[in-house]
Write a structure and sequence with these properties.
single chain, mainly beta, two-stranded antiparallel sheet
């Protein structure tokens, strides 16, 4: 079993840069070669920030799911981001 030893941190914000509270941020890594499948999620804080512990190595999809309340405020979900995370041996 792989160890969660890195964190993916960021902020969900609107066009003016104000943080959006209560959005669900999720990460997914497909099973590829040496990498096993991984899924985790977090809810943004009052300032829109989030932190999700992840396993080093692999390509992750990062997405945001907005509640019906946030959609009712005319927010739309951003495109899914693809993030490559190096293995521990590839860092520094």
């Amino acid at each position: 079993m792989a160890t969660l030893s890195l964190s993916l941190n960021g902020t969900v914000a609107d066009e003016s840069g104000s943080g959006i509270s209560g959005a669900y941020v999720w990460v997914y890594r497909e099973e590829l070669g040496d990498f096993s499948e991984f899924w985790s999620e977090s809810i943004t804080k009052d300032d829109g920030s989030y932190s999700i512990d992840i396993i080093p190595g692999g390509k992750y999809d990062v997405g945001v799911y907005l509640t019906s309340e946030l959609r009712g405020q005319n927010y739309t979900e951003p495109s899914i981001l693809n993030v490559k995370v190096p293995k521990a041996s590839e860092r520094d």
